[in-house]
Specification:
The protein is of the alpha+beta class. The protein is elongated.
């Protein structure tokens, strides 16, 4: 995570009278690590037959071949430090 602060001061009213304000901006950076071979496994779940009509074209677009776009397989994403596919929680990090 990266964050920054900007302070601005501007004259307000009579000479020598100023007001200061603080503006905070935040930028949160995420990094997702995909183990080797996992991305290719996801892509290769699509039907590999030649496109011969609307039915096979639909399979190429939504990866299921079903007109209702319902996937017949599930993938689980989780956070935690239990396996190599999960990212650990950082209890010491807090967004300000």
């Amino acid at each position: 995570m990266s964050d920054g602060q900007r302070y601005t001061c501007a004259p307000l009213g009579a000479r020598g009278t100023r007001t200061c304000s603080m503006v905070q901006t935040y930028q949160v950076n995420w990094q997702i690590t995909i183990p080797a071979g996992r991305l290719a496994l996801q892509i290769n779940l699509a039907d590999q037959t030649a496109v011969a009509g609307a039915a096979t074209a639909l399979q190429r677009v939504n990866f299921t071949g079903n007109a209702d776009y319902v996937f017949n397989y599930t993938r689980t994403m989780a956070a935690g430090a239990t396996t190599d596919t999960q990212q650990p929680y950082a209890d010491a990090e807090h967004i300000k």
